[in-house]
Amino acid sequence: MSYLTDKLRAPSREAQGEVTVPGQMFDEIVAANPARRTLLRNSFGLSILSVFGATTLAACGSDGDSAPAPGGGGGGGGGTDPVGPDYSVKFERLADKITEDTVTVPKNYQVQVLYSAGDKCEAGSAGYAGTPQSWPDTETQAGGQHDGMHYYALDGVDPNKGGLLVLNHESTDNATLNLTVEGTKTRLSNVGVSVVEIARGEDGTWSVKANSRYNKRYTGNTVYNVGGPAASAVNGTRKVVGTLNNCASGPTPWGTYLTCEETTDNYLDPTQDEKGYGWVVEIDPYTPTSTAVKRTAMGRFDHENTAYMTDEANRVAFYMGDDGTPGCIYKFIPSKAYDPKNRAANLNLLDEGTLYAARFNDDGTGNWVELTHGKNNLTLNAIDPGNYTQTAPDQPPRPTIVNFASQADVLIDTKVAARVAGATLMDRPEWITVGVDKTVYCTLTNNGSRKRTSAANPRISNSHGHIVRWKERGDSPLATTFEWELLLLAGQDPADGAAANVTGNIKGDEFSSPDGIRVDPQGRLWVQTDSGTGSNITDIFGNNSMYYVDQETGESKRFLVGPKGCEITGIAYTPDLATFFINIQHPNGVWNTKRAGGGDARSATIVVSRKDGKPVGA
């Protein structure tokens, strides 16, 4: 989540107030299980040919990286071709504290800007040329603040040379907009989602295919259908105008795109009921004429992304984080298996199922608490303990009475339901990824106002965040219990002599505020950061960056550093892993300006590759 988004929604959050209660102590879990930090191991060596599966429309598997594998891993199958590419990580790590106003990559790598805020999207778009624009011109071109994204294969097209790139626009790139004309509609047109067909030319340069029938914008002015148990309660017409704060995202096994709304506050257009926002929205990128649907069965909260796990019977679970301060981690299991041979049969699968929230116990075990009306105290006169982690231990909790009269109430007020049911309040759960061995990882970006620690959130005033991971019982997406551990605590090197709450345990290159995270089809873990951009951060860590993290040792290697003021976010790639797509959000220097003299540094999707065509990471 962009810190700019946090500022936009701050007034309504402050009006609600914050309340809190005691949690668990980190030293208790270490004492009980001193070896937990090294229990989980990831695996390498899966065939890259499985990235898009056997068919184009089943283009994604575990975490969207590969088709569901025999054995249920959802991350591909088989071993790496012994004469094939070398996917071992050998790039030359970047230096510390880089603050240049450019994208910095290792030696032998290159960067290309592919798709920037205001660029042409749909056929007939005027495109931004340096003069601020207003609606309706802005409705059909790239939105602002590029965020989560996914790459989809196209039937009949070599996926290493072309496909569909679908990406979120979290907020507005105001410098490109003329807000004096149709200001509300102009802002709303700058958020949402872009679907663009892209292709690699003979010279290796990638570009958006102009006038492709797939190119489409979904904006804050678009009408969306609403499905699931809370549809009528959200709006009796089962329709909502607009999507908002489209932060991260994820694919489904049947080839659709899940864009996640990271706000339950409607601060851009107060005329719309706020119950219409804070949902997962399903988009079919292969069918531009279809209407996107808000899936209420998956709960309403500050969604970050989705990542899924499958099994041999084609049952699937979707993992989600609530980027709240604090927020919970969720899992949604559709009632039925998906059908890999009948795509149409899956298009309403997300309207029925069971939603859970995670409880992280102090002994390294965990369980999924069912969020179903009538269970786990989700009834009339329920007691909400509030955001208890944000008040000092010597301050008594300030619980409130809430009424859950139906499942629709549970889904509309999911954040409250999770607290009532006893889920663990985490330090801003952001991206989640499912590895090829079914280890699940979640970035907890930070929580500078935490006052009470728990085993899974061991630091008060947690300014730099951490990463937690877990294994489901039996590696099953249907499991209701799991085992967890901390992968790492982000922050300063202990040699700096800083306070304990800002000191990390990273081996290698230190960083703050892990956000974007993804395990690629070769089992390699990539982490992106979204820390503050003031000198108090950049003097220690440099600009926001992207890292490779070894899951066994916790060692990190700095792979990419962004320009001034930006967040690094969005991770997608071609199946050969020779091309990575990465998003640069809200740069504020002169990088990627269009206007003469600058002043309009634009968010953008960039292409990163090796000059010799080898896989990224080599």
UniProtKB/TrEMBL annotation:
Protein's name according to its UniProt entry: dTDP-glucose 4,6-dehydratase
Database matches in Pfam families: PhoX
Compositional bias ranges of the Gly residues kind: 70-81
Chain residue ranges for the region called Disordered: 65-84, 126-147
InterPro entries: 6-blade_b-propeller_TolB-like, PhoX
Bias (Polar residues) ranges: 131-143
